[in-house]
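Quick log. Single chain, no ligands specified.
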Amino acid sequence: MTFPAGAVKAPIEITITSDDKYVAYRMEPAGTQFLKSVTVTQLLSFTEVANRALQNPLLAAYIADDRISLAGKVPVLEIEPSQTIFSSRGLPQAQVWLIKHFSRYMLASG
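-> predicted structure:
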């Protein structure tokens, strides 16, 4: 994560917890609002898309409820602006997206 100068009014302690099965994160303190967009970069080398062409675009999704299962279709509140970074061979290397608040996010496709 990259926090630009002026993203928060005062120093805060953050915690990011990754899901053990999906490319998803709980970012806390939940509800924290940023004055400037924060950049999140997810390397894809240890995901199912590593060294494989994408069949569908990757999307960064905001999920409001921490109790929602991430298997199958997941109801999301926002699709965040994101970009896939590709290698010179055309394979996905990383996904970069912008957030304006902390909550639960995941990468998804399809």
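The chain has one domain: 15-109.
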